[in-house]
Amino acid sequence: MQRSAITTALLSLALLAACNADGNAATASAAADGGEAMAASPAGEARTIGPFEVEAIASFNEPWALNFLPDGRLLVSEKPGTLRLLDPQTRQAGEITGVPEVVYGGQGGFGDVVPHPQFAENGLVYLSYAEAGEDDTAGAAVARARLLLDEAGGGRLEGLEVIWRQVPKVTGRGHYAHRIAFHDGKLWISSGDRQKFDPAQDMQSNLGKVLRLNEDGSVPDDNPFADQGGVAAQVWSLGHRNPLGLAFDANGQPWDIEMGPKGGDELNRVERGANYGYPIVSNGDHYDGRPIPDHATRPEFNAPAITWTPVISPSSLMFYDGDLFPQWKGNAFAGGLSSQSLVRIEFDGEGGAREAERFAMGARIRGVRQGPDGALWVIEDGKGGRLLRLAPKD
């Protein structure tokens, strides 16, 4: 699909404006410089939502990701460029210093934070963030560092090493995606199309792809395109738009959830070497009103397991395997931004899926994780975004 540079730039601007309107991007406040200190939520604040007893634990300045350490404490990234360490028992929080400098603005800034599966032995954490390039360009990067905790409830990163970058760096501040997941000794990264459309189909670029790497950033020999070399060797699947959720089910099958254009948010069963068709096909249309052919018109491209129109603006994805909600083992949960919801997804065991339930949260949901206690832990988007613990209602 060919476009002139001018047409592509205009489409990107139109898309970004529309995304800000419907919730597929950061709120307008996210573009402001500066930061706010984390504040404790009002003591005892709790409410019920559907089957949940919801307890507010803390609040953050534009939180983006949360992840538990083996000792039960939480790492929370804040988009302007801060990493927090929270003790959910005492509700005391400290700062982790030594984080990389981030390009903050639009959808960009500090992204995911994921401990290495053997964190208890090696102390490694992996971070994604928007990194500056030349001439006002930017791109996602993933780095790893050793996390050294202190007795005061904070800590520092030591030996920070960048192990992956989006290629090429481009103008604009949207669609980084940069979710991180580990499975079976490999590092997986979702890489957004950066609102540039065509790179999702270009094997000379790692934009618009799901990537599989070794934990040091090198390329496994058994990747589907390893024989092509270069960034193509990193690729597990292509034709993605803005995959903001990446998770594995109990059988080790990767799934991603991604924002569609104007309509057509997708949940995909991510298969080896598969092409999901963007921007050639989509179940949504361009923001300027031009239609995009549906997946059904091009059967050579993998179709989504679920599409959403109207969109939910998915922000995150996790599979549940805890005991606190035994009826939901094997289900997935997705955070919703414009839909201000938590979405429960059921699977049929044959590659199919359906939205089973939607919980109205009353705020944009940026992230969801299962806690060590089996509860669902959710973070709201934006300044003052709260960390919520969702447990069964009595």
From TrEMBL:
InterPro entries: 6-blade_b-propeller_TolB-like, Glc/Sorbosone_DH, Quinoprot_gluc/sorb_DH_b-prop. Keywords: Signal. Residues 1-25 form the signal peptide. PROSITE patterns: PROKAR_LIPOPROTEIN (PS51257). Gene3D superfamilies: TolB, C-terminal domain. Residues 60-389 form the Glucose/Sorbosone dehydrogenase domain. It holds the Pfam family GSDH. It comes from the Bacteria. This is PQQ-dependent sugar dehydrogenase.
